[in-house]
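Dear H.,

Thanks for agreeing to be a second pair of eyes. The structure we're designing against is below in token form, covering all 334 positions.
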């Protein structure tokens, strides 16, 4: 389809309570820059049920305009309801590009919407830019198992669509918003929604694992030696009020649940403090945590690649270093 505007859209995914998921608000930060280069407005699209809080968050974090679809059929995410709603909005307003958070729902919604609109989709992006002359978005994502980065453009079709990993960008500081708010009276007939959410069962181990929203993460890798090694990691995390993370090697070995995995095939995180314990620093793992504010690496191999991205490094056995560090933190807290 032809773009009717030069606007850039950010789909702001909502929780069941009507609040915004972090990634949608995070994407307003690069969205502001990209919309400026394309010569259009930054538009937040909020779909859900009782979404006043999500609208407020989008308004406070830089949206020029907010399109709101609020209805009971959107309380739980379903592919049909959300795809029908989003495609209808795109056909009506005609943005030139759109970003969707690469959450479980976003990874389901993006391909469905792009197919219906006969346009391209670049998945799991970790960097973004815009060519000001053409308005083409440069979508950058890991390729070949994370061993290189590919930059992809969609020059012949609109809107350009990409899903972007949570945690790649930081939320801007909240300010008093002045966005234009447009409420769309859009509803999807029940007979067009082919699935129904009957019950939501949270995975036992992942219930309290919020890696993407964590301010401090203590992660363990192959160097922890086994599931019992994570007890040392957990002890430090408890003292710091941190969330426990893990490398793919530790997860693949069955030492800890996948919900804790940081990296290319896990979660992308950007905490204030990331402590990597016994993690060598494969490019796939670094891709998932390199946007952390401060990185501390503890590894007995002085040549481990993790030290290349660390702000502070400790060369030593994690089982000797962590208990001392944990004890010193206890003393400092009184």
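And this is the sequence the design step returned. I haven't edited it by hand at all.
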């Amino acid at each position: 389809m032809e773009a009717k505007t030069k606007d850039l859209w950010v789909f702001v995914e909502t929780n069941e309570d009507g609040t915004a998921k972090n990634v949608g608000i995070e994407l307003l930060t690069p969205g502001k820059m990209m919309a400026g280069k394309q010569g259009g407005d930054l538009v937040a699209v909020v779909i859900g049920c009782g979404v006043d809080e999500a609208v407020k968050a989008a308004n406070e974090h830089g949206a020029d305009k907010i399109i709101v679809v609020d209805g009971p059929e959107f309380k739980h995410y379903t592919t049909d309801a959300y795809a029908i709603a989003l495609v209808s909005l795109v056909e009506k307003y005609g943005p030139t590009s759109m970003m969707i958070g690469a959450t479980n729902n976003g990874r389901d919604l993006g391909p469905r919407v792009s197919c219906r609109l006969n346009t391209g989709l670049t998945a799991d992006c970790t960097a973004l830019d815009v060519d000001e002359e053409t308005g083409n978005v440069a979508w950058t994502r890991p390729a070949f198992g994370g061993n290189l980065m590919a930059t992809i453009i969609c020059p012949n079709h609109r809107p350009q669509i990409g899903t972007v990993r949570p945690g790649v960008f930081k939320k801007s500081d909240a300010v008093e918003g002045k966005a234009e708010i447009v409420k769309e009276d859009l509803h999807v007939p029940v007979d067009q929604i082919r699935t129904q959410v009957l019950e939501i069962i949270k995975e036992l181990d992942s219930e309290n694992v919020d890696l993407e929203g964590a301010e401090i993460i203590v992660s363990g890798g192959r160097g922890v030696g086994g599931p019992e090694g994570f007890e040392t990691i957990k002890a430090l995390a408890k003292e710091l009020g941190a969330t426990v993370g893990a490398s793919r090697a530790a997860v693949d070995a069955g030492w800890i649940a996948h919900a804790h995995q940081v990296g290319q095939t896990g979660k992308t995180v950007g905490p204030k403090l990331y402590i990597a314990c016994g993690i060598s620093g494969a490019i796939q793992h670094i891709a998932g945590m390199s946007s952390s504010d401060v990185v501390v690496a503890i590894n007995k191999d002085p040549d481990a690649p993790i030290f290349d991205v660390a702000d502070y490094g400790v060369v030593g056995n994690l089982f000797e270093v962590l208990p001392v560090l944990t004890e010193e933190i206890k003393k400092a807290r009184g």
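Two observations from my side: The chain has two domains: 8-192, 216-333. The longest strand covers residues 42-48.

Warmly,
E.
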